[in-house]
Amino acid sequence: MLLRKADVVEGALKFLDTEGLDRLTMRKLGAALNVHGGALYRHFPNKAALLEAMANKLTEGVGAPLPEAPWRDQMYVLGQRFRTAMLAHRDGARLVSGTHATGANSITAGSLVVDVLCGAGLAPAQAGSLAFSLYYYVLGHTLDEQNQAYTPEEEWQTGENQLASALSPRYAEAFASLMNTDPAERFAYGLNTFIEGVASRIPHP
Question: Which of 42, 76, 91, 133 would you call most buried, defined as having the most Cβ atoms within 10 angstroms of its Cβ?
Answer without folding.
Answer: 91
